[in-house]
Amino acid sequence: MINILLFLYNCLIIIFLVPILLFIILTGKKNRQEFFYCIKERLSCWNIPQLDKNKKIVWIHCASLGEAKAVEPMISYLKEYNIIVSTITKSAREYVSKIEGISYYALAPIDLYPFISSILKKVKPEILILIETEFWPSMITCANKIGTKVITVNGRISNSSFLYYRLTKFFWKPFLNLITYISVRNQHDYDRFITLVDNKDKVQITGNIKYDRDFKSETITKEYLYFRPEDFIFTAGSTREGEEETVIKVFIKLKENFKNLKLILAPRHISRVQEISSLLKKNNLSFELFSKITNSIKDVIIVDVFGKLQSLYSISDIVFIGGSIVNKGGQNPIEAAAYCKPIIFGQYMFNFESEYVSLKNNGAFEIKNDKEFFNIVTKLLNDKNFREDVGKKAFEVVKKQRGAIEKNIKIIKEFL
Q1: In the CATH hierarchy, which top-level class contains the domain 216-400?
Q2: Gap between the Cα atoms of 377 and 326, Å rounded
Q3: For 265, phi and psi rounded to 5 degrees?
Q4: pTM for this structure?
Q5: Strand, helix or coil at 55?
Q6: CATH number of the domain at 53-208+402-415, out of 2.60.120.260, 3.40.50.1220, 3.40.50.720, 3.40.50.11720?
């Protein structure tokens, strides 16, 4: 049965790959550069150096920049092994290239059986570690066939994703059953996973490894942005279409009472920078792009580069979490909380429900409309003690959740 499902899956990838390639080729230079970046690696042409034959090989596979950052603290615990890290995105690959202790890094091959099989036979890892929801059927099957143990770390299935997995359980269950062990973030994830696998004993709650990062290692200064020490900085991170209008509206109203208030807008997709620029021009707000910062006076900075949002949280006074006013499920508020920042989000935080539950009214505020948004920011700006107290509560939530890395390392080493 699993061979039939795998064959159909590979056929679907090939069928969809053709129109996707045409779309990428026809939609501009930037998309082409992103896709064809290190294209040989995506086609399983890995140039792996000579590895220490006395060390076992551990392959860690993660998707984007967030997962790559979460993986970083694990590397120091695995120094006695050859570590190979694969990623999906360019930004994640660039990030892991700077992590000490990694023997080799590359973009993950397209999940077609021939590509994945050739790489796994070449690498022959003792363990393949999948971060969060990196469930690639060809990768899991090929690893299983050569005797590689597959472990999921920080396993998560959001409420919205669970509906999809449950409806397609006939397809996913055979592949998830091939995974040797699944460590998950919380009780919600545990309950979802045990409905998708036969052996619930191989699923364990270990916590969220993203809490264990050294967040404060990434900082920036107000001076770098040409802001004054007395300026208030309101950062809206990972915003989605339809949210910038609300943020800008609230910001303009706040500026009537807080003349030294500055706004940092970091869209989830930087391809929307031009659209956001037009919105700011329409509202007569002066702005600059982060990549072209100057010493001119401006009300707003648009973040048009990857990987800078965390450092910008370090100088923020208040943080709004995007994707939560519109129905997108929100983004991870942990980074802002780790910098002791008061947090604001909307009603749609279902992609990070455990973080939402932990932080709501305990370091973060949920807003339902523009009026509530304006009122809570006003209160935070007016009262420094209140602002700092809320930020400290947010940080306490992060501190209480730490320790997941060590729990996962213990499980990994048991299988090594």
Answers
A1: alpha beta
A2: 19
A3: -105, 120
A4: 0.84
A5: coil
A6: 3.40.50.11720
